[in-house]
TrEMBL record:
Species of the source: Amblyomma cajennense
Protein name: Innexin
Location in or out of the cell: Cell junction, Gap junction; Cell membrane
Gene giving rise to this polypeptide: inx
Phylogenetic lineage: Eukaryota, Metazoa, Ecdysozoa, Arthropoda, Chelicerata
Keywords: Cell junction, Cell membrane, Gap junction, Ion channel, Ion transport, Membrane, Transmembrane, Transmembrane helix, Transport
Record-annotated membrane-spanning stretches: 108-130
């Protein structure tokens, strides 16, 4: 496991030469690393562990039934979400079969690890483009001034070269600035796009999920319905 997550250290390491700001780094360092880590954890659970446990009274082997339900996805009965648990239904969304019942399928569970990885890639794209456009320009013009072992004479000489460079090239880096701001805009567009992506992935429930959870805490416990159970059910039918 250490070897698997060891590769993420390069994403969160502190760079000696910084060419962006703190918010930019949150996108491709913290967020990207977290998404990849979660993707690895979910993948190990889905394809190495046991992602689903089916309850049955039939003679069908448990592993066969688990595989069938996982491949064909599970569902909840829409009319059973608001029924009283323990009296009318055993769990929200789980009820006996009735003709014409409205079903809500939960097929997205199979794709969580891939979507998490896709999100990580999308968060890193602006960083990748900025590195390509930046071309180590800052590292080149620094002239090893960040090195603690540079002797004083060499440091003074490099400082003079750096000052002369800025004086002679004043106003010549407009495209460099434009590239950076474009990548910052891409970060913003990516965040907005991720919201729509998650909303589509969760069947339109993501955009209102937060407000519904907050409202849920204010409802009377005897009548309230947990929106977290609706979006992320622990028990479903197959």
């Amino acid at each position: 496991m250490d070897k698997i997550f060891g590769g993420l250290k390069s994403l969160v390491k502190i760079d000696a030469i910084v060419t962006d700001n703190h918010v930019f780094r949150l996108h491709y360092k913290v967020t990207c690393a977290l998404l990849i880590a979660f993707s690895i954890l979910v993948t190990s659970r889905q394809y190495i562990g046991d992602p689903i446990d089916c309850i049955t009274k039939d003679s069908v082997p448990t592993r066969v039934l688990d595989t069938f339900c996982w491949i064909h996805s599970t569902f909840s009965v829409k009319d059973a979400w608001n029924k009283k648990v323990g009296v009318q239904v055993p769990y929200p969304g789980v009820d006996k079969y009735t003709p014409g019942e409205q079903r809500v399928y939960h097929a997205y569970y199979q794709w969580v690890c891939f979507v998490l990885f896709l999100q990580a890639v999308l968060f890193y794209v602006p960083r990748y483009l900025w590195k390509a456009c930046e071309g180590n320009k800052i590292r080149t013009i620094v002239l090893d001034l960040d090195s603690p072992i540079l002797n004083d004479d060499k440091r003074k000489c490099n400082r003079k070269l750096l000052v002369d460079y800025f004086v002679n090239n004043l106003g010549q880096h407009k495209m460099y600035t434009c590239y950076y701001f474009l990548c910052e805009i891409l970060n913003f567009v990516n965040v907005i796009g991720q919201i729509y992506l998650m909303d589509e992935f969760l069947g339109g429930e993501f955009s209102t999920y937060g407000t519904k959870v907050l409202e849920f805490t204010e409802w009377d416990w005897s009548v309230r319905f947990d929106p977290m159970v609706k979006v992320f059910p622990r028990l479903t039918k197959c």
